[in-house]
TrEMBL record:
Name under which the protein is recorded: Transcriptional regulator
GO terms for cellular component: cytosol
Membrane-crossing residue ranges in chain numbering: none
Superkingdom per UniProt: Bacteria
Organism: Guptibacillus hwajinpoensis
Lineage of the organism: Bacteria, Bacillati, Bacillota, Bacilli, Bacillales
């Protein structure tokens, strides 16, 4: 549900309902009703305001719910884009992941 995701990201940011509503310029009562799933279809404009304050792409609220797949947050996207600009290939990244898995396993075995 969209409201649950908004509440999750709001709590991650350490914001109260009142703080988020004030920063986003939305009514606290409406935000509360969204978070409690009493209102199920907030407008795109509302979601844009909330997403901007929570520093996440608006799609996080929509796509995760519709597709059931996680959406990368902004930091992950920036890291991936930086890696791509640096010339790191998918194969390089896959090799690095395998190395890190091996390293973690080796540390656990010690």
């Amino acid at each position: 549900m969209i409201g649950e995701k908004i509440k999750l990201y709001r709590n991650r940011m350490g914001l109260s309902l009142t703080e988020l509503a004030k920063r986003a310029g939305v009514a606290k009562s409406y935000l509360s009703s969204i978070e409690r799933n009493q209102q199920a279809n907030p407008s795109i404009h509302f979601l844009e305001k909330i997403a901007a304050e929570l520093k996440v792409p608006m799609e996080v609220f929509i796509l995760e719910e519709e597709m059931g797949e996680p959406v990368l947050d902004t930091e992950w996207k920036e890291l991936i884009e930086e890696a791509m600009r640096s010339g790191i290939t998918k194969e390089d990244f896959a090799d690095y992941l395998e190395f890190k898995k091996w390293q973690l396993k080796s540390n656990k075995d010690e």
